[in-house]
Write a structure and sequence with these properties.
The structure holds three protein chains of three kinds. By secondary structure, chain A is mainly α. Chain A has one domain: ABC transporter involved in vitamin B12 uptake, BtuC, CATH 1.10.3470. Chain A has 14 helices and four strands. In chain A, strands 1-4 form a two-stranded antiparallel ribbon. The longest helix of chain A is centred in the C-terminal third of the chain and has 27 residues. The relative contact order of chain A is 0.17. By secondary structure, chain B is α/β, with parallel strands linked by helices. The N and C termini of chain C lie far apart (44 Å). In chain C, 47% of the residues are buried. Chain C has a two-stranded antiparallel ribbon. Chain C has a single domain, classed as ABC transporter involved in vitamin B12 uptake, BtuC (Orthogonal Bundle). Classes of the chains: A mainly alpha, B alpha/beta, C mainly alpha. Chains in contact: A-B, A-C. Chains A and C meet through helix 5, helix 11 and helix 13 of A and helix 4, helix 9 and helix 11 of C.
Amino acid sequence: MKKTWPTLFILLIIAVLIGIGLFSGRFMIYLTIRVMLLGIFALGYNLLLGRTGLLSFGHGAFYAAGAYGLGFFSLHLSSHPLLGIVTGIAAAALLALIIGFFCVRHTEIYFAMLTLAFGMMVFSLIWNLRDFTGGDDGLVGIMREAVSFFGLIKIPIKTDKQFYFLILIFFLLSAWVVHRLQNSPFGLALAGIRENSNRSEFAGVSVKNYRLAVFVISGAFAGLAGALETLLESNARPFMAHWSHSAEPILVSLLGGLLSFTGPLVGSVFFIAMREIIQRFTENWMLWFGVVLLIVIMGFRGGVVGVLEGLLGRSRKELKE
Amino acid sequence: MGEVILDIKKLTNFFGQVCTATNLDLRIESGVLTSIIGPNGAGKSTLINLITGNLPVQSGTIFFKNQDITHLPIHKRVRLGVCRSFQIVNIFPELTVLENIMIPILTMAGRTWRLFAKTAQEKAGRTQAEAVLERVGLIQRKDTVANALSHGDQRLLEVGVALAVNPSLLFLDEPTAGMNPVERVRLLENIRQLSKDGRTTFVLVEHDMDIVFSLSDRVIVLHRGIILGDGNPDEIRSNKQVREVYLGDSV
Amino acid sequence: MLQSVAHVILAGLSTGMFIWLVASGLTLIFGVLGVLNFAHGSFYMLGAYFCFTVLKYLGANFWLGLLLGPICVCIIGFLVERFFLRYVYHLALPYQLLLTFAFVLIFDNLVKMVWGAGSLTPPDLRSLSGSLEIIGRKFPIYNLFIIGVGPLVALGLWLMIEKSWWGRIIRAASSDREMAAAIGVPVPALFTSVFLFGTWLGAIGGGLAVPYVGLLTSGMGETIIIEAFIVAVIGGLGSLKGAFVGALIIGILTAFGTRFFPAFDMFLTFILMAIVLLWKPQGLFGGTK
């Protein structure tokens, strides 16, 4: 995974993102926010899938935990957005710790089934506990108060344009954190687990513990994305925990390229773009989601990044048996 | 030299009806280079799997340096100092040779819980890893992806990953199978050297009798889960039972 | 009280049998092919929808629907296995799972497109309708029929796998694919046949569900596959015995939940799953793997 992105390129992307925030219309801003939120979700998720080789179908539950965590905090305690976000992340991480504890001791198939089952359990809990969670309406009326630091500085985030820059900061922060994690000894151990978990044990790696750690970390990122979406839409919904939502970061990472750092980011752009276009023609976006997934698995497992690398003459990167 | 580091008592293992270890009692002394030989199906790999943790122990006890490791998970045994290499190449295929070695080195040094350190800046680990690669003769290939290596080089890497853990007790399961004579000699020299240095006690599973008899201080003969013979190479060579069952009369 | 409990148990048994029918196909496919077919719930749903269509538009009787519906599903299953799944057996596990998952998305939404997004009400059955009085309360005859069908299927499967020629071959092929191929077993075709049979079981479950659920929705595949997964975890993935026992336990537990703790019915099964996971991680009858 030795990618030396010229710093210039990164600065260019950041410049573009800032430019969009300053000069674009509302729709473009909204769309880019959506891309960044999905990017945060997928980046964190891909630590689990692309890096460690674990396929979870239940990460929507952590997204929802972040969303409802922020929601409850905001509605009942304080509407300070940063505190709410922290609460959301903490709730997601805690839930991931609990669910992860049951799941990581199993591998592969059991792991996939269990995460799916637990994810849907969270979904049905949220759906059924109407009085508490608002059922299928979800939590509504979550305000986007100004970010205040000790009551001295107040940074408003009311309009989407203003909120955009808060999201941009979190997005860049997330990208930086994930990048550091991947290039750390911890990230190397995770890659080892993906490549050969038995041999990792014989290298002294307590595989279960590392899996749990990365599960919680990826859950925390999901929670961050969920909390931010709740602030964006002023609303937390049960479908965030549904498996069809859990499938989004999977498709995004796969579409972009599982084994590269930028894969999930590229995938997010493509995903949102595709969805926008397809939704203009049909309501049945999920059908096409499935078709795209099918095509990628049958023929383009390296994702967009894999295709690009192929054009540049480098080998295709996919998960090997 | 001479102190017992591994003490196995009454180790028994069944695969369904087949008994692959029958009430085994075995003691390994530090510094004594031991070989385990026996026909196919004798239970050699099973024994290693039981000792190193790949197979759960059904009955019996295993003590390492006076600590009960019978039911410890694999990584804990490795941390205590018991490790192994595999008969079939069992490396990290899509990672580079250097990364393959860095994983055990950084893990054993406790560096892998550092979430924000940079692997590229792990100078001490890198130096140690390169030292291991020098030893097994793979230093030129350190940036090659593991599954792009030739089979012989992969076997060297296989042993390298085990050595990188720096264990007190290392089981090598047919380490030289598939190597060319040059690689073989080099590896065996390394094993002899490291054994003399005294930090690692080697136990080899081997089929090549030349290696067994020229290298080992002690030879254990396993047959159908039972220890048929146990002594220095000369004693084993002249053991009638062993000759019948295993060596034929060609030695 | 006894009346309530007895009826809850009966209701649980009949629900459990549906789950068993679906879980049996899932387990068979997993046990032999090593593939966890996420789309199995969709085949159940398609079985129900096709059967419904035959009932409604061909004005035919239920048994014809039960015959034709699953056959249509098997055709779809054949296409899935032969042209897609077969090519991913050798790939890393996530790709196999994701492929079947892609089909879930495709089928669940195709159903919405073809039959509409709303729910469908099947016409009333003429035979097997009505109810029987058991301990002072009426219990539908159809449900009793289902309670009878379940064990019959279990027996039939057991006989097929243990005693028949086909059963022997698939047992051999599932334990050692390469060896079986080496001695001349046409493994790809065999796998397709197992996939078809498993799919057929799921589709039959769907067809039988038509008079039982009273309402067909495109989400019905979803709920049943999760129940089947939980059954597999509890019973042990790959064990038909485990699937049967697990399905009954889940069915009865869900029935108790629905009757006595309405908001938490599914939650009870999850708790049971968590307990089994802690106590016996491989499931009650699970083997190695």
